[in-house]
Amino acid sequence: MSARILGATIVRILRQLLHDRRTVAMLIVVPALLLALLYFMYDDQPMVFDRIALVMLGVFPFVIMFLVTSIAMLRERTSGTLERLLTTPLGKLDLLFGYGIAFGLAAAVQASVAAALAYWLFDLDTAGSTGLVILIAVVNAVLGVALGLFCSAFARTEFQAVQFMPVVAVPQILLCGLFVSRDQMAGWLEAISDVLPLSYAVEALQEVGAHADPTATLWRDLGIVGGCVVVALVLAAATLRRRTA
């Protein structure tokens, strides 16, 4: 990968993103509204709100970035933009890692806004620091980007891209430990949960909620999620098609 080409790709994607006001609103406003909904749902149960809102600060970026990225890449393919780009010195990995970094920067803004609202307006209380929560949320968002890029290779229309949401994202949300502790699941469900990257991201957030200082488990979980991001991006590069008929 060329640093110059990668940098130009990141700038191009960020410019496209900033010109799409609906996507910007989805990235920034929707998580804040959903957190507000959670706050009023559990207004008289602050401990329940703390547990769920902390996890949702990581789940929201994952889901939103998965959806936005899979559709954005499909549009570049169907419009012929991707085919034109790949006739230049731009390589597939430059493009996909550019997407990951650009949307990671967008996720940093998203996570910062959501965390500010959660901690200072909705009184979210965690033992660990806000910075760690934002870091995990950004890693989660990049995971959503990587999986979205990979899944978009198998979609021919935007509707098909959206259909990957219940296949890829929803099972991870159900089995990540948010609703039932993973060690209390049936053995076969726990085994499935153990191979899903979102489970480790949620565990890392729970570590922040329970411990004032970063733990070895937290860093291990972040390493696992980061490894899954790299694997998903490489697979996306291997399956990326220049154009959709």
TrEMBL record:
Write down the InterPro entries for this protein, in alphabetical order: ABC-2_transporter_component, ABC2_TM, ABC2_TM_bact-type, ABC_2_transport
In terms of superkingdom, the source organism counts as Bacteria
Chain ranges of the ABC transmembrane type-2 domain: 11-243
| UniProt entry keywords in alphabetical sequence | Antibiotic resistance, Cell membrane, Membrane, Transmembrane, Transmembrane helix, Transport
In which broad location class does this protein mainly occur, judging by the first location in its UniProt entry? membrane
Topology in the lipid bilayer is annotated as: Multi-pass membrane protein
Query: Would I find Membrane among this entry's keywords?
Result: yes
Q: Which Pfam families match?
A: ABC2_membrane
Q: Where in the cell is it found?
A: Cell membrane
The record's listing under PROSITE patterns reads: ABC_TM2
Q: Does the keyword ATP-binding apply?
A: no
Query: Membrane-spanning regions, if any?
Result: 24-42, 54-74, 95-120, 132-155, 162-180, 222-240
Q: What family does this chain come from, according to its entry?
A: Belongs to the ABC-2 integral membrane protein family.
Name the chain's protein.
Transport permease protein
